[in-house]
Fold this sequence. Notes:
Chain A has 7 helices and no strands. Chain A has 152 residues and is mainly alpha-helical. Chain A has one domain (2-6, 13-149). In chain A, helix 2 packs across helix 4 (65-74), helix 2 (18-36) packs antiparallel against helix 6 (113-133) and helix 5 runs antiparallel to helix 6. Chain B is of the alpha+beta class and 144 residues long. Chain B has one domain: Glutaredoxin, CATH 3.40.30. Chain B is built from 5 helices and 5 strands; from the N terminus they run αβαβαβαββα. In chain B, strands 1-5-4-2-3 form a 5-stranded mixed beta sheet, with helices on one face. In chain B, strand 2 (55-61), helix 3 (67-81) and strand 3 (85-91) form a beta-alpha-beta unit. The mean pLDDT of chain B is 93. The interface between A and B is large, with 41 and 33 residues.
Amino acid sequence: MSDLSVEPTTRPSGIDPRGPRFTASVTAVVLAVVLVLPETPATVLIGAQALLFATGVLLGVQRTPTGLAFRTFVRPRLSAPTALEDPAPPRFAQGVGLVFAAVALGAYLAGALVVAQVAVGFALVAALLNAVFGLCLGCEMYLLGLRALRRA
Amino acid sequence: MTGFLILALAALIAVGFGLHRRRVDGRFSAHADASPTTWDHVTRAAPSIEAGERATLVQFSSAFCAPCRTTRVVLADVAAQEDGVRHVEIDAEQHLDLVRALDVRRTPTTLVLDAAGHEVLRAAGAPHKDQVLAALASAGKASA
């Protein structure tokens, strides 16, 4: 039991995989609310979500507000994780989320409501897949993107 | 109104795709061998790696891939336990030509090669240990 609880400090590269899933759950709720709000509050909220994504990209998923909330309020109530996870994939996923949120924000500001909502919808699919199934869609697109864009 | 429609569609797509993935992830199925052999392509791209006497588990990984770590542990475990089975891991980003030649679409992808280096089975997504053991058993039968 004590062996498990010291594991995170002895392997600093690994994070509790439930952290990014908690973040994805919060993201999914925010994006769902954005879709049902009138245009002005939706614009404000997607702007805030874009900032959250940007923190994840710049500081890493452990230092986002939701990452900190997970460590402070959620993690102490859970048992020790069975396996640790590399923080790079969820950080990359935050970047993919940022792209969709930025497109949505731009479209809301330009008055292209449907374009904005479709972009939010794509981000919502990715967030739900991560929250419910632990599946990182952006990470999977990464190899397909490399295959298509870069000559080896 | 469109917002509610998109919300419902997004939820439907996510659940459908997620359930589909849960079903197919890590499942080995028969796959056509590359010409002359898949192993030939692998060694051309990464000459330093060695094949197993009985079978080789070729794992494709990338940096932004959470299940690659789990797969590495499972495949290394099987290779340690099974005589003549070797596990090799290939960084997909560093070997994009190989990735295209063997049509690897996502990471992790695991190829099961027989003693002669022919690809017999492959699975996309993290396989369980019993799935790998069953794949090795059927690969041995196929090439015997």
